[in-house]
Design a protein that fits this description.
Blueprint: H1 2-22, H2 31-37, E1 69-77, H3 82-92, E2 98-106, E3 112-113, H4 118-126, E4 130-136, E5 138-139, E6 142-143, H5 145-153, H6 155-172, E7 176-180, H7 189-205, E8 209-214, H8 232-238, E9 241-244, H9 262-275, E10 281-286, E11 289-293, E12 304-306, H10 308-317, E13 323-325, E14 330-336, E15 342-346, H11 350-363, E16 367-371, H12 378-387, E17 388-390
Parallel strand pairs: 1-2, 1-16, 1-17, 2-4, 4-7, 7-8, 8-9, 9-10, 10-16
Antiparallel strand pairs: 2-3, 5-6, 11-12, 11-15, 13-14, 14-15
Protein name: Spore gernimation protein
Domain GH18: 71-393
Keywords: Glycosidase, Hydrolase, Signal
Length: 393
């Protein structure tokens, strides 16, 4: 009987020990104990309309295991030099659903300024991607609000434009349209909606896919020449999908910062999913960075655009320390030029792109759109294939 009795004593001792340990754990019926654990700000989960929240602030790591999410991918192309454009298409188009040709520019009378697009169009088709015509109010190096207003208010010019768009798409073999009117007068918001309500169904009836580009808004009240005239809910209603231009927070004329900081991108997506079905939202991403001269002065030398691979090679060849901002999910480094001036370079790498891919998964978005093809960033394309299944039609 001694062995069973000793075993029973050991069992009682262990049971008492376990109860003692439980007394030091937070009591979920005691709000004070629970709130003490959550008081560390870096451990408080972010509030978001996404499906899976990061564990800590500044982190955006999701489980990449399992079946790849099928998405659509878009690459914007500026076919200024046809030979270069063909090379850019051949490099990226196998990983793209659409190649968006930027841009067919509108004339005040509704005519279009054509592109030298024959060779890159053929390359796009050979690589199994869909050619997308991008229609803009771009002229003289910038988007023109007066030009947009003329198209919105001159019925003859508007009708002529719509017919020209359909004709060019049929003649050249475009299969999708993106309307990218920017810097529109805020007062022209309803006029722009009316234009879209006319052109998009007309083009869609011809069998083409239709989309629009949207400035990165985070609220209904955001105003001004870039944001004010873009009606998220209306675009989501009349277009097959929309492209969020979630980049250019860091830009050539502004202060040094990440081009597409994740907290800012998240705010835009949080707003967008309130207004537009998730399956219609394509999130924008930059294939470039900027090199600023320090100290930054408003009106001083503009930042120079730099390709991600170029930035990384530059830093490695000079043994520069590449740092990473966990809040913005973006890499950067400093250097001094031959004239003794200090620079800072913000760019993209595989870690910052993974953070953007994670947002697409988290929110269940339609896909990703890149501005702009031709910037050397081979790691992006291999990482894109690792994360997603690219839809081809």
């Amino acid at each position: 009987m001694r062995k069973p009795f000793l075993a029973f004593l050991v069992f009682i001792f262990l049971l008492a020990g376990c109860n003692g340990l439980n007394q030091t754990s937070p009591d979920r019926n005691n709000p004070q104990q629970i709130s003490n654990r959550a008081a560390q700000p870096e451990k408080v989960p972010l509030t978001s309309r996404g499906r899976v929240l990061p564990d800590e602030r500044g982190e955006n790591e999701l489980d990449l295991k399992g079946k790849k999410k099928p998405i659509e991918s878009i690459g914007f192309l500026e076919p200024i030099v046809p030979e270069t454009a063909v090379s850019d298409v051949n490099e990226a188009a196998r990983d793209l659903t659409y190649v968006a040709f930027f841009s067919y520019q509108v004339k005040p009378n509704g005519d279009l300024i054509p592109l030298k697009d024959e060779a890159p169009l053929a390359a796009t088709r050979r690589n199994g991607a869909i050619p997308m015509l991008v229609l803009t109010n771009f002229a003289d190096g910038n988007f023109q609000p007066d030009l947009a207003h003329r198209i919105f208010t001159d019925r003859q010019a508007s009708r002529r434009l719509i017919q020209n768009v359909v004709t060019v798409m049929k003649q050249r073999g475009y299969r999708a349209l993106n309307v990218d009117f920017e810097h529109i007068y805020e007062k022209d918001r309803k006029l722009y909606n009316g234009f879209l309500e006319t052109i998009l169904p007309r083009v869609k009836r011809e069998g083409f896919t239709v989309s629009t580009a949207l400035a990165p808004k985070s609220s209904d009240t955001q105003s001004g020449p870039w944001h004010g005239a873009h009606d998220y809910a209306f675009h989501g209603k009349v277009a097959d999908f929309v492209i969020l231009m979630t980049y250019e927070w860091g830009w050539t004329g502004g202060p040094p910062m990440a081009v597409a900081p994740i907290p800012q991108v998240r705010k835009v997506v949080d707003y967008a999913v309130k207004k537009i079905p998730r399956e219609k939202i394509v999130m924008g991403a930059p294939l470039y960075g900027y090199d600023w001269i320090l100290p930054y002065r408003k009106g001083g030398p503009p930042a120079k655009r730099i390709a991600p691979q170029e930035a990384e090679t530059f830093a490695k060849n000079r043994a520069l320390k590449i740092e990473y901002n966990n809040r913005d999910d973006a890499p950067f480094f400093y250097y001094w030029d031959k004239q003794g001036k200090k620079h800072v370079v913000w760019f993209e790498n595989e870690h910052s792109m993974q953070a953007k891919f994670n947002l697409i998964k988290e929110y269940g978005l339609r896909g990703i759109s890149y501005w702009v093809l031709g910037e050397d960033f081979p790691k992006n394309w291999s990482l894109l294939r690792e994360n997603f299944q690219i839809r081809k039609y």
